[in-house]
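cron nightly-structures :: item 1 of 1
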Amino acid sequence: MREKLESYRAYLFLIPGLFFLFLFTYLPIIWSTWLSFNEWNLLSPKPVFSGLENFVKLWQHDVFWLVMKNSFFFVTVSIFPTMFLALVFAILIDERMKGRVYYIYSLFYPTLIPMAAAAMLWVYIYSPNLGILNIFLAKLGLPKLGWLGSSQTSLWALIIMTFWKNLGFFTLIYLAGLQNVNRELYEAAYIDGAGWWRRHFSITFPLVGPTSLFVLVVAIILTFRVFDQIHLMTEGGPGNSSNVIVYYIFENGFKFFDWGRASTLTTILVLILLSLTLIIFGIFGKRITYTAD
């Protein structure tokens, strides 16, 4: 009887958190899903049920496919180099390298900078005439680039900025995950003659699998949600070359006031994130090494 009372008490403590989770997460998802089957803009004060019409229009819209292409390109190109370098830096810091504290602050400091300030900093860096990046290119005898004003480089410029912003955050997560790796395994491998790369390839990479899985899922969600730097640096241009799905949702909802289409895009984004998460856990979840037995 006492155990049941304790379990009921535990559920009571969960109620406030579950309430806010439902109010600010699940309820908006339900609401946007319902709105995706409706026409709703300034011409129709109330939602008008339209079935799958919003989905069909998006399917036939070239900008939608360009936005989806940009979004998946942004995620694919930015995540894996960030994860790899974050793990390498975490390993180096964990091995008590010289200047360890300096590297920790240098890597993590960009994470602490507000996105608006970071975006303005990189707008200056990418400036065609005054930016240090183009000054460096000029000293090498290379032509200056219009990083944010060219459809060829605008998305790459945002990817580089996002890489710089997220690297320290993921390094810190990997550094925490490395604390759970048994040091005796490295000592045994060293005695057996394993080199630096071999030790980490055979011990570190498998045993930080749970951390890598967590970082991968979080990175996918964060990268698909990228908005601030696009809004402040390119506004999706030029010619939608740097437009991604969250900014496209913003444009449809708050520039064109087409809340039906914005809700449709939100529903698609939720489905993409849910599908990718399930696929990742389905493929890698059972292959993750949680112990060194």
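cron nightly-structures :: done
Residues 80 and 151 are 23 Å apart (CA to CA).
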